[in-house]
Amino acid sequence: MTRCSLIKASLNSMFVSIQGEGPLVGVRQVFLRFAGCGLSCRYCDTDFAERIVCDYKHIYDFIYEHLPLHSVVLTGGEPLEQVGFLYQFLPNLKASLGIKVFLETAGYLPQEMQVIRDYVDYVSMDVKAPYAAGIEPLWDRHRRFIEILSGEIQLILKLTLTPGIHENDRESIEEFLFGVDRDILCLVLQPVHGSESDRGFIATLFDWQRRLISMLGIEVRIIPQVHKFLGME
Ligand code: SF4
After folding, report:
1. Which domain holds residue 96?
2. Which residues line ligand 1 (CB under 6 A)?
3. Which atom of ligand 1 lies at the shortest distance from residue 40's CA?
4. Domain containing 225 — which CATH number?
């Protein structure tokens, strides 16, 4: 038995699918959905009750079985809540398969990110709008999180938005984005699933996209969750 086979992760599920969000939409990936999260966003659709404990070999075999893949996605919940597992798992995974790692995170655990940053290729970070999510503002944590990312990591920022975007959210989001001093692959405005038919809301996003492009000079895209339209996980 190798040392790695003793490493365990607590997952909600493990599956193969396509990337349904953001600029890499449609690529083939294995998803490791980590159980547990330190936040409690009001629109959260993760079932925290389901948990399976998987060891390194089980996860490695699942990934190997589904090759070829664009990358392996660490999602959740919040994967960085299990940084001990990731710190041992990721170097071995990359050394064995040379596969890219795509981290989806709420960007509130900068110290944990620092521990694994050398093994991550893409970070898709949720920028949490406090009123929409119904949580305390995370601006300082978000700033420190972005600061510690290495230059090789491709960073995607994602805003999950609900109809009736609060004006206070818009102002604090713009102030935060204006202070980001780093290359960004793309800023994604993602309407929460089910809100696509709200024409007024989509028109608001369209206007805001224009303002953000003008103000920030970065790539800003409106992209819904495509996998949900296809009935995929
Ligand atoms: S950060 Fe993500 S997983 Fe955690 S509560 Fe919010 S939506 Fe759910």
Report:
1. 4-229
2. 37, 39-41, 44, 46, 76-78, 106
3. 5
4. 3.20.20.70
